[in-house]
């Protein structure tokens, strides 16, 4: 008997991410330090001097921390976030980056054949997560000719037509940078009474003036 992964895994696409591909540079004979990388949100100046100074003073605490398994529940972080955000710590899940949380969401809520709506172009991990669990993708395409503005009426129409089990929304959208107004998001919520709406605000700190999804 041959051992093969589930059919859904065979169809998983490669998700493009920012950052230097060191294997590709080696093939091309290009040194990484010769590349100006604009594909990832990195500070070319490095950490502020104050941060480096603070890090130099925690050598003992750091050595203690890395000699033990960390708190898998990230209790201290969740309590601090709960206090800052004004919500209960039990409503906070900490993950190793957005990708882990996106895939955990798909594993927990979606299954084979479930319909999930994504709005493209957007963060590719939504599609990968859905493919892993065998969900059926419904896609709304943002148009370059419309400056990648979301046609919310079209979104609502798709929701009413397909009744998706899940909807992924990146706000501001990655990679277009478009920020969805609160009124438009509320229209989507009103049409999605039976759907899990996943609002990804990974880059919300880059928006000068934004509404609070916690309200």
TrEMBL record:
Its cofactor is pyridoxal 5'-phosphate. This is Aminotransferase class I/classII large domain-containing protein. It holds the Pfam family Aminotran_1_2. InterPro entries: Aminotransferase_I/II_large, PyrdxlP-dep_Trfase, PyrdxlP-dep_Trfase_major, PyrdxlP-dep_Trfase_small. Keywords: Aminotransferase, Pyridoxal phosphate, Transferase. Residues 34-209 form the Aminotransferase class I/classII large domain. One of its GO terms (molecular function) is pyridoxal phosphate binding.
